[in-house]
Amino acid sequence: MHCPFCRHTDSRVVDSRVQEEGTVIRRRRQCPECGRRFGTVETATLSVIKRSGATEPFSRDKVISGARKACQGRPVSDAQLQILAQQVEESIRSLGQAEVDAHEVGLAILEPLRCLDEVAYLRFASVYQAFDSLEDFEAAIALLRAEQDAQQPAPEGMA
Predict the structure, then answer these.
(1) Helix intervals (H) in the chain
(2) At the top level of its lineage, which domain of life is listed (predicted)?
(3) Residues 109-151: pLDDT tens digits?
């Protein structure tokens, strides 16, 4: 780490603090040459490998943008989309990889979106999973209904 004041090539770490749930480390450093102190911020980068092979940094804003399109006209707030993007990022980071395929990001969006709004989920899934026919929609709806029925308790006297 070069000193920003005298450009000396060495510095000593005086203090380190973990922030933002362990994804950021702030360090106070001191230059042994000029004695001045400065701070650095270290973050763990997460890159997305696109279908074209290009890589780009993971972006919560892109997750929100895609989910917002699926939620157009639905009763979903910006705060809910922010939480969805955070859930997606946490899910991707839990894979423990510095680079993930764009397909993995799409898969990570599906489940939180399904919990947020089923219509938006179907819209997103229809594009992401390339639904070709009405049967694809019917199969997705049948799966949602089956999951919903499995979660509902049996009426009293029926168990």
Answers:
(1) 60-70, 78-93, 102-116, 118-128, 134-151
(2) Bacteria
(3) 999 999 999 999 999 988 878 888 889 889 989 988 888 888 7
- Whole-angstrom Cα Rg for the chain: 23
Distances (CA, A) of 95 to 4, 127, 130, 132: 36, 24, 25, 30
Residue labelled with tokens 């203090």: 15
* Residue found by looking up tokens 């910006």 in the block: 78
CB 126 within 8 A of CB 106: no
Spatial CA neighbour of 17 closest among 39, 46, 44, 45: 39
List, in order, residues 6 or more apart from 159 with CB less than 8 Å away: none
Q: Strand 12-19 relative to strand 24-30: parallel, antiparallel, unpaired?
A: antiparallel
Beta-strand pair 47-49/55-57: antiparallel
Does the pLDDT value for residue 157 go beyond 60? no
Dist. CA 34–CA 3, nearest whole Å? 9
Q: How many Å from the N-terminal Cα to the C-terminal Cα in the chain?
A: 68
